[in-house]
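README, section 4: Worked example with a bound small molecule

Sections 1 through 3 covered apo chains. Here we extend the same pipeline to holo records, where the ligand is supplied as SMILES alongside the sequence. The molecule in this example is nicotinamide-adenine-dinucleotide. Nothing else about the input changes; the structure line simply encodes the ligand pose together with the chain.
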Amino acid sequence: MGTGEKGTLYNGSSEIEFFLDSGAPDRASPTHAGLNARVEGPAAPRPGRAPQPLSPEFPPAPAQGACVQAVVKTTRGPGAEVRTVPDPVPKDDEVLVAVRASSVCGTDVHLWQWNEWAASRMKTIPLVLGHELSGEVVQVGKRVSSLAVGDHVSAETHIADGTCYQCRNGKMHICQNVQVLGVDRDGVFAEYTVLPAMNAWKNDPSLDHSIASIQEPLGNAVHSLVPEEGLADLTGANVLVTGCGPIGLLAITVARLLGAHAVYATEVNPLRAGLAKQMGADRVLNPVAEGPEVLRTLLSETGGNGVDVAVEMSGHPASLQLAFDALTSGGRVSLLGLYDREAALHFDEAIITKGARVYGIFGRRMFTTWFQVKALLARPELKEKMAAIITHRLPIRDLPKAMELLQSMQASKISLEPKW
Ligand SMILES: NC(=O)c1ccc[n+]([C@@H]2O[C@H](COP(=O)([O-])OP(=O)(O)OC[C@H]3O[C@@H](n4cnc5c(N)ncnc54)[C@H](O)[C@@H]3O)[C@@H](O)[C@H]2O)c1
Ligand SMILES: [Zn+2]
Ligand SMILES: [Zn+2]
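The generated complex, written as structure tokens:
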């Protein structure tokens, strides 16, 4: 989509057409002109490639050895560029995936902005950005037997070494040498991407690509609510979700599906507060507008007891405090939100004398969380709610527009279509 062209705003139940007046450069502009920054020569021919196209609604793949389009972080600074890169070649234990949908995550926004976290975290440049994915396998490595050409897959974005202390103890998501897709190795904002077969999660082919792409943040929400075995039943529980970004919104819905008696949410952004209601929150409280009244409300609504489960999904220190203040003694808190600074807590009151259980949540349990996600996706209402958090659908070439919308908090989840 270029300047002045039409796009679609999806509000969960209907699509509204809108016009773009700025944003991505046109295809003919210098950033799209095939600068070939990373092209050292033609990619190796790939015998065994699938006949194309696999799905007739998508264009056929370029010839073997051609270059493909990708959004590449080319410098240690803000932004990224659409470039042509060599068509990636899967190793023996990897698969090549044609990207059918991706979506923008807060992590992508940080990398785009090039904030302090991004500058210290991102080591490899140039690098293809993006990690939320739905695609089709077009080639399998020699040693891959679990997947076949034509399979629909999403990506578990934590690529583990499989051999460290954590991996050998069944905790691959916190592997000592974890590589994150689109942060440490080439990601999915591209026509094609390569995934270790281990990280390619096979989807039901009837699952809509834009929904399938959002399984990864859905997994974050499920992991937060179900941090270990035996905690998946929330029947009768009072749950607090602080922060209603896409992950908090998904957590509200999942808490409902797991049987929560009441779900309370906090959010400061009006668009997202509205979506939190739509996701099924009983009360959505605004800590900025309501101040200390928020805690009083949470306590009075729970008969003075406080909530049984709190999931902190804002990354704001005030929410961290609220999550523990509102927790009933013996309750549990899952911390997913990332703080870009030290966050203080009075440990005696917040945790020790409350007998609180605290879980640090990183990624998804591999692959228990994915099986739980799959089971939950059998519930049609979850797919409906996931569609409702997609506020915008944009061609991937409009990523600058997507970033603008997210940075100004005018969007929730933005789904990207593979249109270059
Ligand atoms: N631990 C992990 O594996 C992991 C994975 C992905 C994202 N994250 C982090 O989890 C958090 C949630 O992710 P997301 O993609 O939904 O992010 P997001 O930034 O879109 O959502 C955060 C939400 O919190 C709201 N908020 C800010 N201050 C608040 C306050 N005082 N009270 C209530 N709400 C407040 C914001 O308006 C926003 O809607 C972020 O901090 C993100 O960096 C962690
Ligand atoms: Zn993500
Ligand atoms: Zn490991």
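What to look for in the output: Residues 1-47 have pLDDT under 50 and may be disordered. Residues 219-360 form a domain with the Rossmann fold fold (CATH 3.40.50.720).

Section 5 describes how to batch many such records.
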